[in-house]
From TrEMBL:
One GO term of the biological process aspect: amino sugar biosynthetic process
All residue ranges annotated as the SIS domain in the record: 276-420, 451-593
Record keyword Aminoacyl-tRNA synthetase present: no
Designated name of the protein: Glutamine--fructose-6-phosphate aminotransferase [isomerizing]
SUPFAM superfamilies documented for this protein: N-terminal nucleophile aminohydrolases (Ntn hydrolases) (SSF56235), SIS domain (SSF53697)
Main subcellular localisation: cytoplasm
Organism: Methylocystis echinoides
Function: Catalyzes the first step in hexosamine metabolism, converting fructose-6P into glucosamine-6P using glutamine as a nitrogen source.
Catalytic reaction annotation: D-fructose 6-phosphate + L-glutamine = D-glucosamine 6-phosphate + L-glutamate
Domain of life of the source: Bacteria
The keyword Cell inner membrane appears for this protein: no
EC number: 2.6.1.16
Length: 603
C-alpha cells in the first residue's frame, strides 16, 4: 500500500526521491512527502494528492540535502492531510512507515506522559518519538531502532534519517517488504525492486526482522538478533519501459491489450518447457484435497480453478479468503492437503498470514505470484511465476488472466499425474488456443464502447453467470465498482429468485454471462426472468448465444465460440473493457481509483 523510497548520494537527492515515488504510485496513495537533511537540519515537504503536486513544491522550494527519505501514504489512521502525511519528524528523527502499529494508542499515551507532543493522528508517529526518546537518553540510532521490535506490535517497514548521524540511512523490516541497493551514485531503499531500475543493478532482499545501515558506498544488514548477515541479492531489471503507457491513454488499457502476448508466454513456458514439472516436486496422487487461498481478484481466479481441479484432475478444492482463513479453526486429523496461495504482488498481508498458518500445520504450499522478488515467492515451499510483467493499473487485468492460465496448467499437470490423461490432453489443447482467442476479443473493443455509454449514467448494475462463469460475474462486478464507482453486484444466475431479482428494474443494467454450452438453457431462462421485469440486459456470449437471446437482450458483448473449459479466460477481457470504458466516460482516473491500493500490505 504505502510506498517507501530513500537515497543517500554525493549530490542533492530530492529529484531522485520524487522519481522513486512516481515509480511506486501504482501501489495506491492519497498523499506524498519527502524529508532531506539540509545543512544539518531535517526539512519536510509534503502534499495531499498526487506526486506531481509534491514535485511542484520541491521545484519552487528546492531541497539541497544529499540524503533523504520519501513516502506515498495510503491512509489507515487519520484522514489524508498534510499533518498526517509522512515523513514524521520528532526531535531530529524522521521516519517513513509502511504497515500498522497495532498498539499505537498505548505507546502514544505513554510517550505523551513523558512530554512528547504529537503533530498527527497517525499510528506511525509513535515510531520517531520512540527513537528520539531513546537517542536522547544516550542510545545510538541503530540501537534505538533495533529496540523497536520490543515496543511495537503489528507490521512495519521503516526508513529512518537522523540529524545525529547525517551519513547513514537506517531501515528495518517486520512484515512489510523492503529492499536495499548500492548504485554508482549512492545507496537506496525501496518498497519495490522495480523502483530501483536505473539507480542500481542489484538489490538486497531483506528478511523479516532485518535491519539495515546504508551509507553512500556500503550497506550492512543485521538479523533480528542484531548479528551481521548476508542476504540474497537479485538483479534489478531496467524496467523503466514497463512504466510507459506505450501510446495508450492509460496503463489499464495497455495491460488489457497485452493479454494475448502474456498468455502466449505462459503457454510456451508451461506447456512447451514444462515449467511445473521443473518447479514442483509433489506427487498429487497422494493429495486428497486442495486449499486455494487468495484475496480480491485472485480469489475469483481460484473460484474458477476449483472447478478445473474437480472436472479435469478429479481432486476437490476449498477456496478461502486469506482474511478469513487465517482466523479459521484448525481441523483435527485433516485430510492429506496441499495449499495453493495466489497473489499478484506476493505481499498481500492476509495471504502471507495464511501462509504462516499453513506452515505451522505442516501443509505443503505453492505460491503463484507475479512479483518474483516477493515474500510469498520466497517463503512458500514451491513457487510458480505468472510471467505477466509489471502491472501498473490498480485494477488487475493481465495478472488475472495470467492467474487463470497458470492455474489451468496446474490442473492439467495434476490430471496427468492422477491418471486423467485424456482430460489433461483436452485441456491443454484448449489452452493452446487462448492467445489467438484473446486477440480476437480485442477486436471487439469498439462495440463495447457503445455498450459502455448506456452504463455511464447507471447508479447500480448486476452481473450474473453460472458454473465457471459465476466467478467471472463477481469479477466483472468488482471491476465496475473499482474504477467506475458504480455499485455493482455479481450473482449466480440461479440465485436470482432468492432475492437479487428484487433489484431488477428498467434503470438497472444487467450483464448476463451466457455463452453457448451445457448451462446455456438454464442461464437463458434466468435472462428471460430478468426481461419479464423490464431489466436492461447485456449478454456476454458467442454469436449463437447472442442470436438466441436477441429478442430480450438489447446489447451484446461478443466473444468467440470456445471450449467451455476456457470460457472464463476468454470472457475476462470484455468485462475489463466494459468497466474501463464506463469509467473513462464518467471521467475517472482508471489507473488510480480512489481509496484503493495495488499491493495490500496491511490487514
Amino acid at each position: 500500500m504505502c510506498g517507501i523510497f530513500a537515497a543517500i548520494s554525493n549530490k542533492p537527492v530530492a529529484k531522485v526521491l520524487v522519481e522513486g515515488l512516481k515509480r511506486l504510485e501504482y501501489r495506491g496513495y492519497d498523499s506524498a512527502g519527502v524529508v532531506t537533511l539540509d545543512d544539518g537540519a531535517l526539512r519536510k515537504v509534503c502534499a495531499v494528492g498526487k506526486v506531481e503536486a509534491l514535485e511542484s513544491i520541491c521545484e519552487s522550494e528546492p531541497l539541497t540535502g544529499h540524503v533523504g527519505i520519501a513516502h506515498t501514504r495510503w491512509a489507515t489512521h487519520g484522514a489524508p492531510s498534510e499533518r498526517n502525511s509522512h515523513p514524521h519528524v520528532a526531535d531530529g528523527v524522521a521516519v517513513v512507515h509502511n504497515g500498522i502499529v497495532e498498539n499505537h494508542s498505548e505507546v502514544r499515551s505513554e510517550l505523551q506522559k513523558r512530554g512528547c507532543r504529537f503533530a498527527s493522528d497517525t499510528d506511525s508517529e509513535v515510531i520517531p518519538w520512540l527513537i528520539s526518546t531513546s537517542v536522547g537518553q544516550g542510545a545510538k540510532p541503530g540501537h534505538a531502532i533495533h529496540a523497536l521490535s520490543e515496543r511495537l506490535s503489528g507490521s512495519y517497514a521503516i526508513a529512518v534519517l537522523t540529524e545525529r548521524d547525517p551519513n547513514t540511512l537506517y531501515a528495518k523490516r517486520s512484515g512489510s517488504p523492503l529492499v536495499a541497493a548500492i548504485g554508482p551514485e549512492g545507496g537506496y531503499l525501496s518498497s519495490d525492486v522495480s523502483a530501483l531500475a536505473g539507480f542500481a543493478a542489484e538489490a538486497i532482499v531483506l528478511d523479516d526482522g532485518d535491519q539495515v545501515e546504508l551509507r553512500f558506498d556500503s550497506v550492512a544488514v543485521y538479523d533480528r538478533d542484531g548479528q551481521p548477515v548476508t542476504r540474497s541479492v537479485v538483479g534489478v531489471d531496467d524496467a523503466c519501459g514497463a512504466a510507459d503507457k506505450g501510446g495508450f491513454p492509460h496503463f489499464m488499457l495497455k495491460e488489457i491489450h497485452e493479454q494475448p502476448s502474456v498468455s502466449a508466454v505462459i503457454q510456451h513456458r508451461y506447456a512447451v518447457e514444462a515449467l511445473i514439472a521443473e518447479s514442483i516436486d509433489v506427487d498429487f496422487r497422494h493429495v486428497d484435497r486442495l486449499r486455494l487461498i487468495a484475496c480480491g481478484t485472485s480469489y475469483y481466479a481460484c473460484m474458477v480453478a476449483k472447478r478445473w481441479f474437480a472436472e479435469v484432475a478429479g481432486i476437490a478444492a476449498d477456496v478461502e479468503l486469506g482474511s478469513e482463513y487465517r482466523y479459521a479453526p484448525d481441523i483435527t486429523n485433516p485430510p492429506r492437503e496441499f495449499a495453493v496461495l495466489v497473489s499478484q504482488s506476493g505481499e498481500t498481508a492476509d495471504t502471507l498470514a495464511s501462509l504462516e498458518k499453513l506452515k505451522s500445520q505442516r501443509i505443503g504450499t505453492l505460491g503463484i505470484v507475479n512479483q518474483q522478488v516477493s515474500t510469498l515467492a520466497r517463503e512458500a515451499d514451491y513457487f510458480l511465476p505468472l510471467l505477466a510483467g509489471p502491472e501498473i493499473g490498480v485494477a488487475s487485468t493481465k495478472a488475472f488472466t495470467a492467474q487463470l492460465m497458470v492455474l489451468a496448467h496446474l490442473a492439467a499437470h495434476m490430471a496427468e499425474q492422477r491418471g486423467y490423461r485424456l482430460a489433461a490432453t483436452r485441456f491443454r489443447s484448449a489452452l493452446a488456443k487462448v492467445p489467438k482467442l484473446l486477440s480476437a476479443v480485442l477486436h471487439n473493443e469498439a462495440a463495447i464502447i457503445a455498450v459502455a455509454e448506456r452504463f455511464s449514467q447507471a447508479t447500480s448494475a448486476l452481473f450474473v453467470g453460472r458454473g465457471a462463469l459465476y466467478p467471472l460475474a463477481l469479477e466483472g462486478a468488482l471491476k465496475m465498482k473499482e474504477i467506475s464507482y458504480i455499485h455493482a453486484e455479481g450473482y449466480a444466475a440461479g440465485e436470482l429468485k432468492h432475492g437479487p431479482i428484487a433489484l431488477v428494474d428498467e434503470n438497472t443494467p444487467v450483464v448476463a454471462l451466457a455463452p453457448s454450452g451445457e448451462l446455456f438453457a438454464k442461464v437463458a431462462s434466468n435472462i428471460r426472468e430478468i426481461a419479464a421485469r423490464n431489466g436492461r440486459i447485456t449478454i456476454l456470449g458467442d454469436r449463437r448465444a447472442i442470436l438466441a437471446m436477441s429478442d430480450v437482450a438489447s446489447h451484446a458483448l461478443t466473444m468467440p465460440i470456445t471450449d467451455e473449459l476456457i470460457q472464463p479466460i476468454v470472457a475476462a477481457i470484455p468485462l475489463q473493457f466494459l468497466a474501463y470504458h464506463v469509467a473513462v466516460s464518467r471521467g475517472y482516473d482508471v489507473d488510480r481509483p480512489r481509496n484503493l491500493a495495488k499491493s495490500v500490505t496491511v490487514e
